[in-house]
């Protein structure tokens, strides 16, 4: 057998030997990814259940929280009471929190169901606040990484931050530009419109 044919046979033999190893390696890697995903899913579910239990046993002034559907730990309904000495005082605003499966590595989203006027809440009710922004540096330079989402945050710290936001809006990057403009240029009209939102929550 000439040298070229011998080399070709050796290469074919090597490929045949390596193929099962490669396939096995891919299967192991896929299984590992699946297990990691399941672990993350289980951990997030257990963590959310613990936080729900803690809030049920030890309620926090200013808000209440619970599940929309007992079979879905990833969707919460919350009621936020307007903070005292703010235009929102007396209101009981309904909102929802939607948690990702990789919580607490990534933050939930929050949306007000009740109609509400605020510079940091867009017209659809979505809350725009640093603590709910993806972790890492802000490419626009408005926020420090330490101000954004961190896995140590909980439902309690999120809602306390939102209550603080109602009293003290952030005008650096408003989600509702018209509300921010009205707040600055005509505070009397702003308070009148907010008072209407408060009355609507009282009528429900």
Automatic annotation (TrEMBL):
<dbReference type="InterPro" id="IPR000608">
    <property type="entry name" value="UBC"/>
</dbReference>
<dbReference type="GO" id="GO:0061631">
    <property type="term" value="F:ubiquitin conjugating enzyme activity"/>
</dbReference>
<comment type="similarity">
    <text>Belongs to the ubiquitin-conjugating enzyme family.</text>
</comment>
<feature type="active site" description="Glycyl thioester intermediate">
    <location>
        <position position="128"/>
    </location>
</feature>
<comment type="function">
    <text>Accepts ubiquitin from the E1 complex and catalyzes its covalent attachment to other proteins. In vitro catalyzes 'Lys-48'-, as well as 'Lys-63'-linked polyubiquitination. May be involved in degradation of muscle-specific proteins. Mediates polyubiquitination of CYP3A4.</text>
</comment>
<keyword id="KW-0833">Ubl conjugation pathway</keyword>
<keyword id="KW-0808">Transferase</keyword>
<dbReference type="InterPro" id="IPR023313">
    <property type="entry name" value="UBQ-conjugating_AS"/>
</dbReference>
<dbReference type="GO" id="GO:0032446">
    <property type="term" value="P:protein modification by small protein conjugation"/>
</dbReference>
<dbReference type="GO" id="GO:0005524">
    <property type="term" value="F:ATP binding"/>
</dbReference>
<dbReference type="InterPro" id="IPR050113">
    <property type="entry name" value="Ub_conjugating_enzyme"/>
</dbReference>
<dbReference type="Pfam" id="PF00179">
    <property type="entry name" value="UQ_con"/>
</dbReference>
<keyword id="KW-0067">ATP-binding</keyword>
<feature type="domain" description="UBC core">
    <location>
        <begin position="43"/>
        <end position="203"/>
    </location>
</feature>
<protein>
    <recommendedName>
        <fullName>E2 ubiquitin-conjugating enzyme</fullName>
        <ecNumber>2.3.2.23</ecNumber>
    </recommendedName>
</protein>
<keyword id="KW-0547">Nucleotide-binding</keyword>
<dbReference type="InterPro" id="IPR016135">
    <property type="entry name" value="UBQ-conjugating_enzyme/RWD"/>
</dbReference>
């Amino acid at each position: 057998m000439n040298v070229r044919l011998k080399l070709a046979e050796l290469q074919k033999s090597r490929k045949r030997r390596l193929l099962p190893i490669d396939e096995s390696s891919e299967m192991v890697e896929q299984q590992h990814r699946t297990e990691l995903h399941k672990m993350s899913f289980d951990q997030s579910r257990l963590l959310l259940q613990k936080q729900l239990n803690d809030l049920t046993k030890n309620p926090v002034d200013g808000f209440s929280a619970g599940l929309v559907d007992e079979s879905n730990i990833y969707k919460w309904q919350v009621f936020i009471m307007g903070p005292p000495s703010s235009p929102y005082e007396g209101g009981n605003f309904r909102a929802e929190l939607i948690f990702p499966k990789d919580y607490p590595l990534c933050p939930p989203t929050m949306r007000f169901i009740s109609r509400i006027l605020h510079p940091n809440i867009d017209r659809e009710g979505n809350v725009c606040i640093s603590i709910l922004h993806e972790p890492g540096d802000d490419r626009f330079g408005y926020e420090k990484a330490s101000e954004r989402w961190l896995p140590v945050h909980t439902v309690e710290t999120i809602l306390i931050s939102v209550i603080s936001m109602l009293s003290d809006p952030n005008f650096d990057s408003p989600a509702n530009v018209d509300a921010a403009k009205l707040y600055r240029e005509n505070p009397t009209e702003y308070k009148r419109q907010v008072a209407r939102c408060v009355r609507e929550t009282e009528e429900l």
